[in-house]
Amino acid sequence: MTAPAQPVTLAVESGTGGILLWVALPYLSLAVFVLGHIWRYRYDKFGWTTRSSQLYESRLLRIGSPLFHFGILVVLIGHIGGLLIPKSWTEAVGMSEHTYHVSAVVLGTIAGVCTLGGLAILIYRRRTVGPVFSVITRNDKAMYVSLTATIVLGLAATVAANIVGGGYDYRETISPWFRSIFCLQPDPDLMTGAPVLFQLHALSALLLFAAWPFTRLVHMLTAPVGYLTRPYIVYRSRDTQLGARAPRRGWERAGQGR
What we know:
Elements: H1 16-43, H2 59-84, H3 87-92, H4 97-128, H5 130-133, H6 138-164, H7 174-182, H8 189-192, H9 196-211
C-alpha cells in the first residue's frame, strides 16, 4: 500500500520564516487595519464612501452588485463559523464532522462562485463603461487585484482540497492558528503544514486587510443609521405653507427658522 499524499506547502520552516509569516505579518496587518480605519475616519471622513457610479450605468450593476454582496456575505459568515467556532462546539450540539464538512464545502463553493461571478461583472462594468472607467483610480485597481486574488485562492483551495482531493480539515490547523493570534499565543507551527493554497489564501487575506482602510472597502464597516432620522430637504416648493402645523425643529424649509 502506498502512503497518503502529503499536502504541498510553502518552503518555509517554523523558524524565522514561519514566525515572520504567521506571527509578525498577522499582527502587523491587524494593527494597520485598526489604526488605518481610525486615521481614515479622522482625516478623510468625506472620502469614507463607495464613490457610487450608479448614475452612469445601472443594468450591469443590478446584476453584479447583489450577486457579489450576497456571495461575500455568505463567505464571511462561513469564515467566521469555521475559524472562530471550535470543532468541539459543533460536535457538542450534535453536528457531526461529516455534516459540517459537506455543508461547508457545498455552501462555500456556491458562495465563492457567486462572489467571483459578481466581482467579474463589476470589473467588466468598470472597464467597459466609459464614465465609470474614468473615475477608477490606481487605488481601485490595486484593490480589485488583491480582492480577486484572495477570492480565487480561497475558492481554489476549497475545490482542490475537498472536491478534487481527498479532503482537508482546516479546523485542525488553520482555525486554531487563527484563534491563537487573538489569544496572544500565536502558534506558527499550525500553519507551516497547511496546503500551499490555504497558506496563499491566508497571506493574500492578510495583505488585503492591511490595505482595506485605504480603499473604498471601508464602507463595509458603516451603516446608514442616521438616514432613518435625517430631515428631508425640500428643493423646490411653490406653496408658502406646507401643511397646517408648524414644522418641527430641524424640519424647517430652507431659509426658514433660525
